[in-house]
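Sanity check

After download, print the first record. It should look like this:
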Amino acid sequence: MMKLDRYDLAILRILARDGRITKSRLAEEVNLSISPAWERVRRLEESGVIRGYRTDIDWAKVFKGSRIVVEVTLARHTAQDMRRFEERVAAAPEITQCYATGGGVDYVLHVMARDIDHYQRFIDVLLTDELGIERYFTYVVTKVVKDGGESVFDWEG
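Expected structure tokens:
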């Protein structure tokens, strides 16, 4: 793990909140001159701490479909079975997020579908793809309370 100081952490908090901030504004907010502040950003990018920059899109204004959370448990937990499942998930545009988890289920998926029928057809395909799914639980999202945005709490690495 990369050693981060208070300036690096401040830069990360600011960029998580506003990835389009200007160089001069970022430098001002962390109390550094522009060159050292931007050099730190480049170092964080090159080390992979900063993976990229995204736009916060209100998908409800674009997409009138259904958001679904799915818990998946695999029948077997071999590296090959998990890799096959993860590769299939990575290739599915309906799945917007996938988390491998410890505890009662193996994976938690976030799925976007045009409607519930679309979701059911999609999950039926996953079940027939011989991915080793033992069971799954579906939760239809009825209201989004908080969406996106990385945690920007005040912490020292």
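If your output differs, re-run the checksum step. Summary of this record's structure: The chain is about 40% helix and 20% strand.
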